[in-house]
Structure formats: C-alpha cells, structure tokens
Amino acid sequence: MRDGHAGGVGSGRGLDDMVRKISAGILAVFCVLLLAACGQKDKMGENMYQVYYVSNSETRVEVHSHEMQAKEPEGQLDELVACLSTNPEKLEYKAPFAMGFQILNRKLEDGKLLIDVNAAYLDLSVTTEVLVRAAIVRTLTQLSEIRLVMMTVEGNPLYDNSGGTIGWMNSDSFINNDGNEINTYELVGMKLYFAGEDGTKLVGGYREKHYPTSMLLERFVVEELIAGPSGQVEGLYPSINPDTKVLGVTTRDGVCYVNLDENFLTVVNNVSTDVSIYSIVNSLSELSNINKVQILINGEVPSSFTASTFERNLDMVTTLEK
C-alpha cells in the first residue's frame, strides 16, 4: 500500500513538474512575442513624426502623425517640408507652407536651419503668422540634425509684437512663461473707431474676436484697426492705410507707445491724418490701462504731428444715421 501510495505521489509530482515546464515554456514564448512586438513598435516609433498644421479657424495648431519614408537627413527634411506644403484633399486643416507665400531658400548649417520666404509672408495676420511659425518650427526641430530654426523675409529679419527681431527658435519658443502654449486664445470685446463716410469723423463699432494671449491686447487693437472694418456694419470705412506695418507696441505708466512704419502717413479714402491718429488713440483709450497714446513713425515723432502724445478726443466722434 505504501509502495502504491508512494508511486501515486511520484506520478502526481511528475505531472506537476510537466505542467510547470509547459507553463514556463508558454510564458517564455509569450515574453519573446511581447518583446518582439515592443521592438517592432519601437522600430515604428522611430519613423513616426508629428507634423503641425494650422486649423481652418486659424486659432490653433493641429498635430497629425506621419511615417517617415526617407532614410537620409536631407531627404527627411525634404519630406517634412513637403508635408508642411501640402493641404489635405478634404481641407480639414491648412498646411503652413501653402498659405500664400513661397520658400525662396533654405540653408542648414551646424544644426541651424535658415528659411527665407518671399514678401507675401507679411500679408499673414499677426495671429496666423505666429501659428504658421510655430507649426514650422515644431515640426522641423524633431529632426536630430535641426536644433534651431530662423525665418527671414527676402533676407530681412522678422519682428515680434514689441518690435524686436525674431531670432533662432525651437519648440520652447512657443511656450509662455506660465507653461501654456502660445496658441492660447481668449474672446475679447473691443470698441474700435473707424472713419465715417466723408472721412472727417470717427464712428465707433463693437467687435468680438479671439486674440492670442501671448500678444499685447494693445497691439491686437492696432492690428484690427489696420485690417479695417469687417463689413458687417454699414457706414464704417478704413481709417488707416492697410499697408501700414506695426513695428512695436508697448505701454508704460498709462501711456501706449505705437511704433508704425511710414505707410501710416499716406492717407486713404480722403481720411485726414488727424482721423487716422484719433482712430488709434480713441480705440486704445477704451482699454482701462491707457490714458494717453504716442504714435511714432519708424521710432520718431513726425514734425507734422500737432502733439507728441494724444488723449481721447470725442469731438471727432459721430454716430451713424439711421
């Protein structure tokens, strides 16, 4: 009986050992397959890049994955530039390099990529330009050969909203100090003053629009004035030459300093210089932190101006006839 019992126990232990060996074998095979799958995923991950596009609303950037086909660095750069230049067939978003301007030249040296574009780039609105630049830089700096990107316009530097030159950029260039991305927008209500029909008076109109929180609201107001009335309200006409470029806007101690180029002095639609000036002054004075405005042309106060700084002038404001 003991022998039989012992033999039974031995057989049970042998069966257990066999089960353990089979289980271990299955586990080993599973681990090998899992590692192989992970290895394949990692291998695919090495070829996957994020391409940044501009949303159709031009209020943010969108990210789409792209599997890189090229193997050599120059070919990879060409491939990403092609992605940034091609709009999708269904037009769900906009490719940055297909937004009305052209690349004239590009040069990569010591990890720095210089991209020179034509003057049509300057026709982009301020908000769109920032998003275009962010999409380009974020996409291209994923390549290990590119650490920094700089954009120029026909050999000339770009300027930021404070009038300073925009130099070499990486993806961190589009993160605010509070850690938020630069394409963060807020809805703001503004009262803007445009010219009346005869060009001698100003007419106020309200506008609601999203603006980038990375930009000074004062500059956004000036940019909107230059863009002109939206056409949704009849009786409002441009008060500023649309070719005017904003070189810088800063505010200190209640005084807003607006630096424009010489195109501001060329009037449009029989609008007087005073109407153009007070279009800016009255609109900026609607902001709670602005008491006075100084307008500079290429950094200097023109001798033709009647004052160096201006305050709100409601005598120049009229209402639309109903």
Overall SS class: alpha+beta
**Structural shape:** elongated
**Annotation field: number of helices:** 5
Low-confidence stretches: 1-12, 22-44
Proportion of beta-strand residues: 25-35%
Largest sheet: 5 strands, mixed
Helix content: 25-40%
User: What order do the SSEs take from the amino end to the carboxyl end, as H and E?
Assistant: HEEHEEEHEEEEEHEEHEE
Molecular structure report:
The chain is an alpha+beta fold and 322 residues long. It has 5 helices and 14 strands. Strands 4-5-6-7-8 form a 5-stranded mixed beta sheet, covered by helices on one side. It has a 3-stranded antiparallel beta sheet with strand order 2-1-3. Helix 3 (126-140) links the parallel strand 5 and strand 6 (148-153). Helix 2 (73-84) packs antiparallel against helix 3 (126-140) and helix 4 (217-227) runs antiparallel to helix 5 (273-285). The longest helix is centred in the N-terminal third of the chain and has 46 residues, at 2-47. The chain is elongated.
Tags for this model:
about 325 residues; alpha+beta; five-stranded mixed sheet; 5 helices; 14 strands; about 30% helix
Map the helices and strands.
Elements: H1 2-47, E1 48-55, E2 61-67, H2 73-84, E3 93-94, E4 103-109, E5 112-117, H3 126-140, E6 148-153, E7 156-159, E8 165-166, E9 185-195, E10 202-212, H4 217-227, E11 246-252, E12 255-260, H5 273-285, E13 292-297, E14 317-318
Parallel strand pairs: 5-6, 10-14, 12-13
Antiparallel strand pairs: 1-2, 1-3, 4-5, 6-7, 7-8, 9-10, 11-12
Helix pairs in contact: 2-3, 4-5
